[in-house]
Amino acid sequence: MVGGALGWQVHQRRNRALLLSGAILFFFIFVLRLHLTIPYFPSSLSDGVSSPSSSFNRDSSCVSFLNDVAWDPHNSSSYYWARSPQVVACQFQRLARANASDLLSGSWVVVAGDSQARLFVVSLLGLVLDSEEMEAIRGDLFKRHSDYRHVVGEIGLKLDFVWAPYEANLTGLVMEFKRNLNYPDVLVMGSGLWHMLHLTNSSDYGVWLTSLRNELVGSGFSAHLFWLGMPRLINSMLNTEEKRVKMSDAVVAAYDREIYQSKLLRQFGGGPLLLLDVESLSRKCGVSCTVDGMHYDGVVYEAAVHVMLNTLRI
């Protein structure tokens, strides 16, 4: 009996040792996989945010704070994410060219809309191209009312700008993607200024936004989808009397209501598109950032690009 009990004890000790060894091995493999799969962004990339001690917080609650960007009151070209505890915890960063290029490598990005969308494209390309490359394409990029395509061969990025000033144009573009079963990895859309100036009918604008939402919901899109919001319009600075009359503060407010009521935006109604809040960004940058009360300095659209890039990292 003693020998049997001793043998049983030895057997139990052996099992415990095997279990402990297995647990240690599992922990080592888990740590190694975690280290290899979580991307590293150097702390030097952060701008106005304390250096992170861990990888980027991928909690979806950070989506609520993506547009919480502030401007230096003494320098309109300097911006940073707000320093509230919730925003700091999200570890948003202004990405350097190398990191933005890594993030967009091998992607197909489509930006569709009016002149605001074109300025967004300028800022996006300015982040992944050097100054000489930007100068070489500037003439083609600024051809009015035309599409534009650029391939950044070094990183395999294909960028399409589609001139689509009306909501019907955007809906047609989405339908074309669905018909061809060919979807971009990132889709940024925005419109409203042309409708406001040439049609001045907020209810009709809302109908088209709802139509766009219906085309997107339940579609084959697995892309990251964004809505490029309209800028703050400074009525007294608009450069024609027609614009000052048709794009009054009351009309702008009516158009804004239609955007929110359409349930197009993820932040307002759980829609398919995440808002890049150019209105907030341009308002915070201020009067000194625009010469015509509608089109803003590149730093505003650059900030919108970084909001988008940080969304891709969540």
Automatic annotation (TrEMBL):
Membrane-crossing segments per the record: 17-36
Keyword tags: Membrane, Transmembrane, Transmembrane helix
Keyword check for Transmembrane: yes
Gene Ontology molecular-function annotations: acetyltransferase activity
Location of this chain's protein in the cell: Membrane
An annotated GO cellular component: membrane
Keyword Disulfide bond: no
GO biological process: xylan biosynthetic process
Protein's name in the database: Uncharacterized protein
Species per Swiss-Prot/TrEMBL record: Vitis vinifera
